[in-house]
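Subject: Protein record for review, amino acid sequence with backbone structure tokens
Concerning: The relation between a protein's sequence and the shape of its backbone.
How to read it: Take the token row as a discrete description of the fold.
Enclosed: The protein record, placed directly beneath this head.
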Amino acid sequence: MLDLFPEDDMTTWKLFISYPKDCQDYNIFMKRLESSTEAFKWSDVTKIGDGFVDAIDKSDALIVLSGLWDDDKELIEKHIKYAKGFRKPIIIIRPYGVEEIPEPLQDVATKVVGWNTACIVDAILLSINGEDYEFLM
């Protein structure tokens, strides 16, 4: 049997997810990533507290759930500051059913995407690998 996605050739992408907490948006987002295609392997390298700078440095991308912006702008701004400093792509996830995101997030976004799982995975891979990257879902 031909293995279209051999384990040995797959990269596990390290994602830092800004503002992780037990809330509906965060939980839904995590479930969507967990249910993504088998061809997309990822790990959550998010650290809360003092270790977050090193975790962002070691990540492949920063994910920001923009619906949580008003809950803790200051912390999200710190995450963005370090991600920019380490030249990490910043993927902004729009709130479910909303098209607009706060302007400060729009200004720093590598990609802005809604809640569709395939679109989220595509945005992550394109942001990390560049616009010429082709990923077949």
Notes: The chain is about 35% helix and 15% strand. Residues 73-85 form the longest helix (13 residues).
